[in-house]
Amino acid sequence: MTATRLILAALLLAAPLSALAQPATAPPPAIPNPTYTTLVLEIAVNRPAAQTWAKVGGFCAIKEWLGGQSCVITSGVEGELGSVRLLNGTVIEPLVAKTDRSYTYSQPVRVGVPFNAYHATLEAKRVTATTSKLVYSFFYDNSMLPGDAARAEERATRATRFMGALQKMKAAAEAG
């Protein structure tokens, strides 16, 4: 192969690669100024993590410990990656990640509702051979609320509600 053909071949191969190297302009975010917040709640449990998770880790067990909730699996197999639960006929929550003693769920974009990037994880963590702790962590955008006072109130309400759920889970796990 001649030198000219080698140079031409190299240029043809390099052209697509150089196009990939150009920085793309990302579209603007749907929420221009998100206010991401996190909340991590924990409670000690006097049972091993595996036993604790066996009592409280069902994906639709939320109806037992959050109270007043209905829960229906609308897609997939309960507790399996990709399953979807419907709470009270209105709240859609796909299971997006899981381990032996945890799951993470999200809430999808809904028509006419600002997307808040909501994700939450429930986990039973080993502390000792005979004890564990339940950890419920949340990540979401609360920028659609009217100000700092409303954001603080929403966060406090969420903390109270889900700490109550953790207390019920602890009681259920420790009951046997």
Give the topology, please.
Elements: H1 3-21, E1 36-45, H2 49-56, H3 62-65, E2 71-75, E3 84-87, E4 91-99, E5 102-106, E6 119-126, E7 132-141, H4 148-174
Helix pairs in contact: 2-4
Alpha plus pi helix count: 4
CATH topology: Alpha-D-Glucose-1,6-Bisphosphate, Chain A, domain 4
Number of domains: 1
Report the oligomer. single chain
Q: What is the H/E order?
A: HEHHEEEEEEH
* Alpha-beta classification: alpha+beta
Quantity of strands, as a count: 7
Task: Report what the structure shows.
It is a single chain. Helix 2 crosses helix 4. The protein is built from 4 helices and 7 strands, in the order αβααββββββα. It is α+β, with helices and mostly antiparallel strands and 176 residues long. The protein has one domain (38-174): START domain (Alpha-D-Glucose-1,6-Bisphosphate, Chain A, domain 4, 2-Layer Sandwich), CATH 3.30.530. It has a 7-stranded antiparallel beta sheet. The longest helix is centred in the C-terminal third of the chain and has 27 residues, at 148-174.
